[in-house]
Amino acid sequence: MLRSSVTPPVADLLRRYDAAGTALSCEPVAQGLLNRGYRLATTQGDFFLKHHLDGDPTAISRQHRATRRLAALGVPVAPPLAGADGDTVTVIGGRCYALHPWIDGRHREGAQLSTAGSRRLGALLGLVHTGLERVMEAESAPPPHESADPVHTLSVIEDLLARLARRPEPRDAFDELAEHRLRERRRLLERHAHRRPPAGAPGGWVHGDFHPFNLLYRGAEPAAIIDWDRLGVQPRAEEAVRAAVIFFVRPTGELELPKVRAYARAYRRSAAAQPAELAAAVHRVWWERLNDFWVLRWRYRLDDRRADALFPAASALVVWWTREYDAVCEAFTG
Question: What is the value of pTM for the model shown?
Fold first, then answer.
């Protein structure tokens, strides 16, 4: 569930910066699980004020160091401003804040990108991965992540179907779609359970949440990659596949494969990734999606409907991807 909003202590915060000016207005612009954001107008200009929920100053400072170093390599980011004490994290009342330059830009989904724009996107993510490899301190990769167990997934399906059956009438269109997709997914899992992949590949530093709402464009060019809260060590090629699946899925569940192909070729060149690496990532992400019901768990276990709008396309994608598996794999590796 959403936490109650907390008005940021703007006056106190601005006093900790030498040249941020005096506040004129502070309007919320984003609200999420990991942070809240505000457009802060001052006598010195506009800023993005980020409130990190459950903030860990050490982890946030690491994210900040990464973006500042990436900026020096030419990666489009919006590093935070340092306060008068040199720190980029301000802790007030036990809450963590950071002040960033305001970036004028817009989010663009894959449908709004040309083939050339898709290539730029793939090359950008490759630049992020190779840049992080250069600027981040060495850190041991976590143990290989086990792939989803279809036996467990089938039990989740039965639980969700039981919760649906107990819902009071009348059911809405979402409930009907959810029941249809759950029964459909059960059949797919029973048919493809033998294709469960082994434990994951070795990891590298990744953004961790690379999708359209975390990338701002100015015209056709990326202006800033934002929200580095999930910066961490994971298989890099899997991030590349997940990002493409989010950017290039149509509302009806198909992927725009010509754009995926352009994106993936540019990513492989930029990140020096081999086709076999992408093929393995495609298989693992496909299996991940086949076993994933997070939107339905939010709705039926937590009574949280914020993600409902994502379900129709995401659930249709799994069915289409299973049917067109070879074509999807070729788009990422050809």
Answer: 0.92
